[in-house]
């Protein structure tokens, strides 16, 4: 899969609140399924489904320690995405002065009013 398609698939996989919460926890270090179950307040089978989807996409992986599966981040893209998701922006970008092609027209401002 080429790099652009992989990024698109990664964004699709990450676009779920539970998965973002899991990835934020994994950014702090290795976690087991029971760790996620405790703070997410969802069933183990549901946690496992989310972990499986992210593992299949190559975002995370695990190792076995006795009877435990210990998950960790595999893709460096995740840390960058989490930084962007957690960044607070002070304002929106300003609108254009005019059309760059015709050099006419003017952005009317907020359309929600």
Description of the structure:
The structure is a single chain. This protein is an alpha+beta fold and 113 residues long. It has a single domain, classed as Arc Repressor Mutant, subunit A (Orthogonal Bundle), CATH 1.10.10.10. Helix content is 48%, strand content 12%. It has helices at residues 3-14, 17-26, 33-40, 44-56, 76-86; strands spanning 31-32, 60-65, 68-73. Strand 2 (60-65) and strand 3 (68-73) form a beta hairpin. It is elongated and about 70 Å long.
Number of strands: 3
Q: Helix count, per DSSP? A: 5
Q: Whole-Å distance between the termini?
A: 44 Å
User: Can you tell me the number of structural domains?
Assistant: 1
- Radius of gyration of CA atoms, rounded to a whole number: 20 Å
Question: Secondary-structure element sequence?
Answer: HHEHHEEH
CATH architecture heading? Orthogonal Bundle
What overall form do the CA principal axes indicate?
A: elongated
> Could you please say which CATH topology applies here?
Arc Repressor Mutant, subunit A
Using the coordinates above, name the CATH class.
Mainly Alpha
Strand residues, percent: 5-15%
Contiguous low-pLDDT stretches (5 residues minimum) are: none
Helix and strand layout, with pairings?
Layout: H1 3-14, H2 17-26, E1 31-32, H3 33-40, H4 44-56, E2 60-65, E3 68-73, H5 76-86
Which properties best describe this structure?
single chain, 113 residues, alpha+beta, Arc Repressor Mutant, subunit A, 3-stranded antiparallel beta sheet, 5 helices, 48% helix
